[in-house]
Design goal:
A six-stranded mixed beta sheet has the order 1-3-2-4-5-6, sandwiched between helices. Strand 4 and strand 5 form a beta hairpin. It is of the alpha/beta class. It is 22% helix and 36% strand.
């Protein structure tokens, strides 16, 4: 089996992915962290994805980490924060990004409800930073 350098393999693999194969949600399993809402466009179709990581001090760092196929255009349409309590099965989406503005938290919550159907509470608020 031929092995490629990890950066080449990742980019080659990514170029073959379809937009539908990109997960709608990728967030930390617990804690409070920044998140962004990304709009993906390709061949006339569009979808939104949610990304949030505690090791990203800025919303822009989350966008830099995001990878998608070359034929898919990705744009951050806003951000905020997520408080994720896995043991209580709750998610709270709130606040805004200084650099990208406030995300449409209703879209983020819709995606989170599909990704976490067994959670007892998934809410949003425009309050807070």
């Amino acid at each position: 089996m031929t092995r490629f350098p990890s950066f080449l393999h990742k980019r080659t693999l990514c170029s073959f992915l379809k937009m539908d194969a990109i997960p709608d949600v990728d967030i930390e399993p617990t804690g409070v962290f920044k998140y962004i809402l990304i709009r993906l466009k390709s061949s006339g179709s569009e979808k939104f994805v949610v990304r949030g990581y505690s090791d990203c001090p800025y919303h822009a760092d989350i966008l830099e980490r995001f990878e998608c196929p070359r034929d898919v255009k990705a744009k951050c349409v806003g951000g905020g924060r997520i408080s994720h309590n896995q043991s209580a099965k709750t998610l709270s989406v709130y606040g805004y990004s200084v650099g990208f503005g406030r995300a449409d938290h209703t879209i983020a919550v819709e995606k989170l409800k599909k990704a976490y159907p067994d959670y007892v509470s998934i809410t949003w608020s425009n309050d807070g930073y």
